[in-house]
Amino acid sequence: MSPKLDFVCEEDMSMFTDLYELTMCASYFDNKKFEPATFDLFIRRLPPNRAYFLFSGLEQVLLYLEKVRFNEKQIGFLKKQGFKDDFLNYLRKFKFTGEVWAVPEGTVVFPNEPLVRVTAPIIEAQLIETFILNTVNLQTTIATKASRVVNAAQGRPIIEFGLRREHGTDAGMKVARSSYIAGCSGTSNVLAGMRYGIPIFGTMAHSFVMLFDKEIDSFRAFTRTFPDKSTLLIDTFDDIKGAEKAIIVAKELEAKGFKLRAVRLDSGDLVEISKKVRQILDKNGLKYVNIFASGDLDEYRIEELLRKGAKIDAFGVGTKMGTSADKPYVDIIYKLCEKMNENGEFSPIMKLSKGKITLPGKKQVFRLKDAGGNFLKDIIALHDEKIEGEPLLAKVMENGKIVCSLPSLDEIRKRAMENVSKLPWKYKKLKRAPRYPVMLSPKLKRLMRELMKRIKKEEVVNS
After folding, report:
1. How confident is the model at residue 387, as a pLDDT?
2. DSSP, residue by residue, 54-77
3. 3-class DSSP state for residue 325?
4. pTM exceeds 0.85, yes or no
5. Which of 81, 298, 379, 428 lies 20 to 30 Å from 143, alpha-carbon distance?
6. CA 451 to CA 14: how far, in whole Å?
7. Given this model, what pLDDT does residue 412 score?
C-alpha cells in the first residue's frame, strides 16, 4: 500500500469513530432497537481561568451528517472485525435521517447548555457521537483560547502562527478556522487561506537572515522581492543594530516609492526593546513602520507586555494558542436525554452518577439581555416552555437534510465578535473571572426531582 498524507478523506469519515459506537449499534440492531432517541452535546464544566466558551465547529458537523455513508471497502473491513452480515447490510444503506437543533456557530456559551441536540433513530444518533465530539471539542477549545488572546491584545491584530506545532494537518486547518472566527486577523497557514479565504501573513525566519554574509544584505534581498509588503526580522544578532539597518533599507524603499511595513521582534525583553526600537524609528521619520512581536506569546504574556507599556502594534501567536497549551480540551459530553417508550411517546431520562448528573428531556436555552444588549443571564428550560429571553437553539437539520443557510466564515466571525462584545468585561478577565449565571427553569427543576424520586424508587424495587 502506497503511503498517503494523513488527511481523513471525506469518503472515510463514516469510519472516523470509536469501535464501541459500532458494537453498540450492532447490538441495537440485533435486539431490534430502532426507536428514536434524543442526545444533547454540551460542555460539563469550565476549565481553570475560563468564564465562557466560544462555540465553533458546527458547519463541519452538519456537512458530515448530511454526507456520512459506508462503502464496500469499509464494509469489508468491518466484516473482518466480526460484525454480522445483516448489520453490515444495514450499514450499506445507512444515512442520517434525524433532526438537529443547534446554537449558531460563533455564539458565547456556558457549561451544561445544550449546544447541539440530535433526535434520530437510536443507531443513527449513537453512531455519530465520536465525530461530533471530536469536531466541536477542538474548534471550541481553540476558538475560546483565541478569543482570550484577542481580548488581551486590546484591538491590536493577532496573527495565528502555530501551524508547525499544532497536532497534525487536520488540527492545523481547524485551528486557523477557529482562530479567525474568534477575531484573529489572519493566519500563516497558506492552505487555510486558500480553502477558507482567511488572510495569510508571513515574514522571514532567522535562517534567511543568517544565510547572507551581512544582515543588511538579507533585508535588501527580501525587500527587493516584496518592496510593498516587507516585514524585517531584526533580532537575529542584535535588535538595536538590526533596527538601524532596517531604517537604512526603509529609506532606500522610500526613494523608490515604497514603504517598509514593519519590523519584527521575536526574542528578548520585548517591553524595553520595543520602546527603544519605536524611539529609533520615530526619530528617523518612520512612524508608519509597525512593530510586530512574536515568540512564545499567549494572552497572559500579551496582557503583561501591554500593561508594562510595550510599543507593539501587532502580535504573532503560535504554539500556546494553536494547542491551547494551558487547557488543550474541553469537558465535552454527548448524553442521552430522552427515549421513546413502549407507548410511542418520548420519555425524559437522566444520569445520576456522582458529579455527572445530566439534564433530562429536550431543552432550549434562553438568553436575557439588558437594554444595551449586554448578556445578563441564561436559563436552561424544557423546549416547549415560554421563557423571557432569546432562544439560542434553532432547527438546522430535518430528515437528515440541512434546513438552514450555512453562514460564511466572515458571518460566523462577525457573530462571534458581536457576542464577545456583549459579554460584560468581568467575565473576560484572564484570571478569577466570576461565573456567568446560568439558571434552570422551575419546570426543568421539577422534572429532575420527579425523575430522581422515580429512579431511586426503582432501584429499591429492583435491589
Report:
1. 94
2. E---HHHHHHHHHH----HHHHHH
3. coil
4. yes
5. 379
6. 35
7. 98
